[in-house]
Amino acid sequence: MLDRSEISLVRGDEIASPLQASIPDSWEGTCPVRDVLDRLGDAWSVLVVLQLEGGPSRFNALKRRVTGISQRMLTVTLRHLERDGLVTREVFPTNPPSVEYTLTPLGFLLSKALQPLTAWAFDHQGTVNKARQVFDLR
């Protein structure tokens, strides 16, 4: 979280950080925030990364821990995470072959960056749900 000394720009009620001032227009194809968050904004990637933070996992064990994900969606999600350099896939020469997924060093950095968001979600889920109920009653 930024403290007051790090805030560089004040426009009316809007406060922007130095980081916000350097983010390109989100509609440009070069925006790194949009590019990376497109992957993390899907329904499952963050949950898979958080589960792999505990160490390597085989496919079926991961599927059991990520409640509600289908086999197909887990496969697609793992492929995307592997393509983005966040997860590695290792095939072991057993009969039948077994596959294990592990976070890469980049994936571990992402999981560490997700910890404050995860803590915020646990701390504020009840408040968000109450706000939804109030909104839905209007």
Offer a quick outline of the entry.
54% of the residues lie in helices and 14% in strands.
Topology:
Layout: E1 9-11, E2 14-16, H1 18-22, H2 32-40, H3 45-52, E3 57-58, H4 59-65, H5 71-83, E4 87-92, E5 98-103, H6 105-137
Antiparallel strand pairs: 1-2, 3-5, 4-5
- Number of strand elements: 5
Please report the distance between the alpha carbons of the first and last residues: 33 Å
Strand line-up across the major sheet: 3-5-4
Order of helices and strands: EEHHHEHHEEH
Which radius of gyration do the C-alpha atoms yield? 19 Å
How large is the count of helical segments? 6
Give helix % range.
Answer: 40-55%
Structural class comes to: alpha+beta
Beta strand %: 5-15%
Write down the overall mean pLDDT.
84
Question: Largest beta sheet, briefly?
Answer: 3 strands, antiparallel
3D shape: globular
Low-confidence stretches: 1-15
Q: Could you describe the 3D structure shown?
A:
This protein has 138 residues and is of the alpha+beta class. The chain is 54% helix and 14% strand. It has six helices and five strands; from the N terminus they run ββαααβααββα. The strands form two sheets. It has a three-stranded antiparallel sheet with strand order 3-5-4. Strands 1-2 form a two-stranded antiparallel ribbon. The longest helix is centred in the C-terminal third of the chain and has 33 residues, at 105-137. The protein is globular. The two termini are 33 Å apart. Mean pLDDT is 84; it is low at 1-15.
